[in-house]
Amino acid sequence: MQRNEISLTRDDLTSSYAIIRHNIRTYRSAGVVVVVSGRHSAESELKKFEDSQDSSDRHEGWRYFIEKTNLKAGTDPAEATQHRQAELEGRESKALKETKPPIFPSPDPHR
């Protein structure tokens, strides 16, 4: 392998990746725009989205990022967005249940 080559694992080659559009200023997500197979394909698609993005759109804060997913490549973006949202809400709910509130001693009624 040459020094400038990136070593890809089997997982990188066979896993699915979603490209998500989001706004870094408002933290608003516009959802999944595409689901592809393989890390290299995801990076290539991401570059296509970034290269075709209007400068005013980028100035408004819209960006794209890659996220590994268990969805199949080619999944409808609206369906992928709903699945991702449900997954995020499930993780958030689990985290809230696992977070225990701080325990404060009860006030001394004799003071």
Structure write-up:
With 111 residues, this protein is α+β, with helices and mostly antiparallel strands. It has a domain at 10-74. Helices cover 41% and strands 23% of the residues. The chain contains four helices and three strands, in the order αββααβα. The chain has a three-stranded antiparallel sheet with strand order 2-1-3. Strand 1 and strand 2 form a beta hairpin. The radius of gyration is 21 Å and the shape is elongated. The protein starts with 9 loop residues before the first helix and ends in a 13-residue tail after the last helix. The model is unreliable at 1-5 (pLDDT under 50).
Order of helices and strands: HEEHHEH
The fraction of residues assigned to DSSP E strands is 15-25%
Strand order across the biggest sheet? 2-1-3
Radius of gyration: 21 Å
Major sheet size, sense and barrel closure: 3 strands, antiparallel
Q: End-to-end distance, in Å?
A: 75 Å
Helicity, as a percent range? 40-55%
List low-pLDDT spans: 1-5
Q: Tell me the number of helical segments per DSSP (H or I, 4 or more residues long).
A: 4
The 3D shape can be described as elongated
The tally of strands reads 3
The overall pLDDT, averaged over residues, is: 88
Briefly note the structural class of the backbone: alpha+beta
